[in-house]
């Protein structure tokens, strides 16, 4: 049922997209998508993605920059796709940075435990 | 005849299968990849716990990509949906991994907490060992005092030197007395924080003021000997008590002999000596 509904939903979107592309009108600029992608970029930078995932972060930033140019050229559909990709790229960069930091934290605490253990053994 | 029928049947079957194959939508590499990414994590409990939203997004985008592919839509649109599906799956995977690492961090922190408690208790053990050491030292001191035949009294440790130190009515140390003092000197050199008070006592024979003076001179003679053997004069107090504080009856020879004595009162380790109540 849910599957059916979501199929209907995607079909609807596809229909709209078809209508849009069919029209000469370029549709509306993807303002919300731009905002959303830029937010995700900021969050990725805040999660230290520049240190841990610089390439993926750059990709996302380039996509946003390209999307802005396309918006200027009124290529809204292409811009929207790029922005959607930039957003998930940025989110992935942030998630990978978080994972890398968690790994470092695990290593650090394990080193810490090891040195405590040595200290205890020495004092006994 | 029968054999031919079978062959025919197989041929029909095969052609149905082939035509069935022909009707399946064409594959797209990115959709295949997204499908695999999603399949890899959809049953991961850590992803389900902490990456559920991204997992749902992955599923929705994958369904969109499959639908577009089935309908033979524009490849750009198909691959865009597949791209998003793949990314969402990757993000969900990272979040699941992150959750696993967090579990490791939590359990490591618990281990560290336990270790810290252990460390604290081993510090307590060390303190206990130090206390034990102090107790042993005190015990050694007690033994050495015992060798000097000192007694524990309410004034502290008291070493009683009988009348062997002096001849009757004399205040000069006898040679045997010097040896006794040498043992005391040795003790005082070992325990430099200790001080002593030399107290002279007499029996009740004779004039009281004479006895008082005699007891003082004898105490001083002991101090002079200690100083002569290298003990700092400031560590030795002297006091004469004359006939006071007899330890036995003055009516018998034996009792009088016990009353003629020098007592060495040894200070605590801060150098304090209890004074005799007058």
* Sheet having the most strands of chain B: 5 strands, mixed
N-to-C CA distance of chain B: 144 Å
Instruction: Give the C-level CATH assignment of chain A.
Output: Mainly Alpha
Strand content of chain A: under 5%
Alpha-carbon distance between the two ends of chain A:
67 Å
CATH superfamily of the largest domain in chain B: OmpA-like domain
Fraction of residues in β-strands of chain B: 5-15%
Strand order of the largest sheet of chain B: 1-2-5-3-4
Which assembly state applies to the chains in this document?
A: heterodimer
**Pairing-aware structural class of the strands and helices of chain B?**
alpha+beta
The radius of gyration of chain A is 23 Å
- SSE order of chain B in H/E notation? HHHHHEEHEHEHE
CATH topology annotation of chain A: Substrate Binding Domain Of Dnak, Chain:A, Domain 2
- Please state the second-level CATH architecture of chain A: Up-down Bundle
Coarse morphology of chain A? rod-shaped
Provide mean pLDDT of chain B, rounded: 85
């Amino acid at each position: 049922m849910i599957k059916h509904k979501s199929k209907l939903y995607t079909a609807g979107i596809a229909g709209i997209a078809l209508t849009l592309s069919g029209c000469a009108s370029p549709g509306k600029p993807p303002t919300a998508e731009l905002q959303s992608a830029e937010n995700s970029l900021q969050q990725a930078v805040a999660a230290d993605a520049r240190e841990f995932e610089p390439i993926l972060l750059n990709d996302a930033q380039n996509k946003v920059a390209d999307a802005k140019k396309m918006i200027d050229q009124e290529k809204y559909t292409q811009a929207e796709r790029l922005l959607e990709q930039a957003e998930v790229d940025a989110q992935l960069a942030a998630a990978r940075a978080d994972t890398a930091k968690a790994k470092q934290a695990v290593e650090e605490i394990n080193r810490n435990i090891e040195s405590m253990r040595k200290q205890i053994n020495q004092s006994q | 005849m029968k054999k031919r029928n079978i062959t025919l049947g197989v041929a029909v079957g095969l052609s149905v299968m082939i035509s069935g194959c022909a009707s399946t939508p064409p594959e797209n590499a990115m959709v295949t990849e997204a499908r695999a990414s999603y399949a890899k994590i959809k049953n991961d409990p850590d992803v389900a716990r902490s990456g559920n939203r991204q997992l749902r997004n992955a599923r929705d985008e994958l369904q969109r990509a499959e639908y577009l592919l089935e309908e033979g839509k524009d490849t750009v649109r198909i691959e865009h949906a597949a791209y998003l599906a793949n990314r969402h799956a990757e993000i969900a995977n990272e979040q699941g991994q992150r959750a696993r690492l967090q579990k490791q961090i939590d359990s490591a922190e618990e281990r560290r907490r336990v270790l810290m408690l252990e460390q604290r208790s081993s510090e307590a053990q060390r303190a206990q060992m130090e206390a034990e050491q102090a107790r042993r030292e005190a015990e050694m001191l007690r033994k050495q005092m015992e060798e000097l035949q000192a007694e524990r009294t309410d004034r502290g440790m008291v070493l009683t030197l009988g009348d062997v130190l002096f001849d009757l009515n004399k205040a000069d140390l006898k040679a045997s007395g010097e040896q006794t003092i040498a043992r005391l000197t040795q003790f005082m050199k070992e325990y430099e924080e200790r001080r002593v008070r030399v107290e002279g006592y007499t029996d009740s024979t004779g004039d009281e003021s004479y006895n008082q003076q005699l007891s003082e001179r004898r105490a001083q003679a002991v101090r002079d000997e200690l100083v002569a053997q290298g003990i700092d004069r400031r560590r030795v107090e002297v006091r004469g008590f004359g006939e006071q504080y007899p330890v036995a009856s003055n009516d018998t020879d034996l009792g009088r002999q016990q009353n003629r004595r020098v007592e060495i009162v040894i200070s605590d380790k801060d150098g304090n000596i209890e004074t005799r109540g007058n």
